[in-house]
């Protein structure tokens, strides 16, 4: 993943495949828990998949403050070194 847009696209694919979320519903401002019905177990599963894709160690505690799709993009950007 080389850009924020690429991270968003990968995240969109994961949310669609893993949680059967409609791709059109996945926008940066969408709340993961309230709007997409992602629960804490789903969030851990998402972190595991992101870890596999990025090849980086991701501590689930780093994602405790994540609330929106854009928050996930920001967190992954930071982990992989994209400004």
TrEMBL record:
Cited InterPro entries: ACP, ACP-like_sf, PP-bd_ACP
Residue span(s) of domain Carrier: 2-80
Presence of the UniProt keyword Oxidoreductase in the record: no
Annotated Gene3D superfamilies: ACP-like
Keyword Cytoplasm: yes
Superkingdom of the source species: Bacteria
Residue numbers of O-(pantetheine 4'-phosphoryl)serine PTMs: 40
UniProt PTM comment: 4'-phosphopantetheine is transferred from CoA to a specific serine of apo-ACP by AcpS. This modification is essential for activity because fatty acids are bound in thioester linkage to the sulfhydryl of the prosthetic group.
A Gene Ontology cellular-component term: cytoplasm
GO molecular function: acyl carrier activity
Cell location: Cytoplasm
Alphabetically ordered keywords of this record: Cytoplasm, Fatty acid biosynthesis, Fatty acid metabolism, Lipid biosynthesis, Lipid metabolism, Phosphopantetheine, Phosphoprotein
Pathway: Lipid metabolism; fatty acid biosynthesis
Family: Belongs to the acyl carrier protein (ACP) family.
Role according to the record: Carrier of the growing fatty acid chain in fatty acid biosynthesis.
Protein name (Swiss-Prot/TrEMBL): Acyl carrier protein
Organism: Pseudohalioglobus lutimaris
């Amino acid at each position: 993943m080389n850009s924020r847009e690429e991270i968003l696209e990968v995240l969109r694919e994961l949310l669609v495949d893993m949680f059967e979320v409609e791709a059109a519903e996945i926008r940066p401002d969408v709340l993961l828990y309230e709007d997409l019905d992602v629960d804490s177990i789903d969030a851990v599963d998402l972190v595991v998949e992101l870890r596999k894709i990025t090849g980086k160690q991701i501590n689930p505690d780093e994602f405790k403050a994540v609330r929106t799709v854009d928050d996930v993009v920001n967190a992954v950007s930071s982990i992989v070194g994209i400004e």
